[in-house]
Design a protein that fits this description.
alpha+beta, 4-stranded antiparallel beta sheet, two-stranded antiparallel sheet, 6 strands, 27% helix, Ribosomal_uL23_CS, rRNA-binding, structural constituent of ribosome
Length: 97
């Protein structure tokens, strides 16, 4: 297995992912393009000391963007939606519970 920080890049914090965290106990992360579901599960369990029940992955294609006359593309990425077991949670904001 690759190192934990090589697999998990950063959490995705949007309105939609915040709703998933609160209502369905699902957490979303940007992960390495080469990582698979098993590596993602092991990395989340090791980093946050929680029990993962399932992992869903999404490959996000690059989008074409324009700034004036210049055309470029955004970076492609891979997202993982991790479902935790009942009673487990991840504190992404560093607050005391």
């Amino acid at each position: 297995m690759a190192h934990i920080t090589d697999v998990l890049r950063k959490p995705v914090l949007t309105e939609k992912t915040m709703k998933l965290m609160q209502e369905e106990n699902k957490y979303t992360f940007d992960v390495a393009l080469s990582s698979n579901k098993t590596e993602i599960k092991q990395a989340v369990e090791a980093m946050f000391n929680v029990k993962v029940t399932s992992v869903n992955t999404i490959n996000v294609r690059a989008k074409t963007k324009r700034v004036g006359r210049y055309v470029g593309k955004t970076a492609r990425r891979k997202k993982a939606i991790v479902t935790l077991a009942e009673g487990n949670s991840i504190n992404l904001f560093g607050e005391e519970e």
